[in-house]
Amino acid sequence: MFVYVVTASIVAVLACAGSIGYAMRSPIMGPQSYVSDSTDDTATNGSPSSSDAGQAAPDASSAPARQTAGAQTSEVAPTDAASPDDASVLTDDDAIRSTLLPYYQALPIYDSRISSLATTFNDGYLDQDRTRRVDSLTGVQSLMGQIESSTHDLYKLKVSQDSQYYEDFKLIRRCYIDADNRLRCLAQAWQISLAYDNPAQHANEILAPIIAARQGGDQNISFVDFQDTYAQIDLD
Questions:
Q1: The pLDDT of residue 85
Q2: Quick one: three-class SS letters along the chain?
């Protein structure tokens, strides 16, 4: 039983967070622990500095988190760019870049926080101390609220399809959806854990949302998409 619990715990973090980085780009942070999003346990810390992260990240701390049954289901409906004839459409590339930059710079910060929350789950989802588990779920829900608020703000923006940054605009929105989905499976797993006074007896059930988010693979599909999508963004 002890061996199983350790293995299951590692699977939890493998499914949700890790250390990623790209040549020629600012890396996104991940945990420095013995686990990572991939099966390679040699991940290193690629934390950007506070100056890299930027001080102008969108302020979205007050939005409530919302839970859904599907780990990979987004609550934000994608929309196409508005007509260029719409007076509210952003058409100036400098203005568009300035508007998108804080959202882009916030992504590594959010990614690091998701990694930290995944590590917290890894360490505590079988903890008999209910207060600590409640606090951990609250942390996940709080970050979900911030990310969802920023996502909704992004979907309110109207960017001209003729802008050189239009594709980047869509990629940034996609990263926010991925980040939200990565948190959803953690929130669902914590909720299952909190249904039991002795969660150690229900490890399989608790980890079900984490495993489902992998959709048969070795990694959380939203984490993989986040990696791939972030690497394509170029606001230079």
A1: 52
A2: CHHHHHHHHHHHHHHHCCCECCCCCCCECCCCCCCCCCCCCCCCCCCCCHHHHCCCCCCCCCCCCCCCCCCCCCCCCCCCCCCCCCCCCECCHHHHHHHHHHHHHHHHHHHHHHHHHHHHHHHHCCCCCHHHHHHHHHHHHHHHHHHHHHHHHHHHCCECCCCCCHHHHHHHHHHHHHHHHHHHHHHHHHHHHCCCCCHHHHHHHHHHHHHHCCCCCCCCHHHHHHHHHHHHCCCC
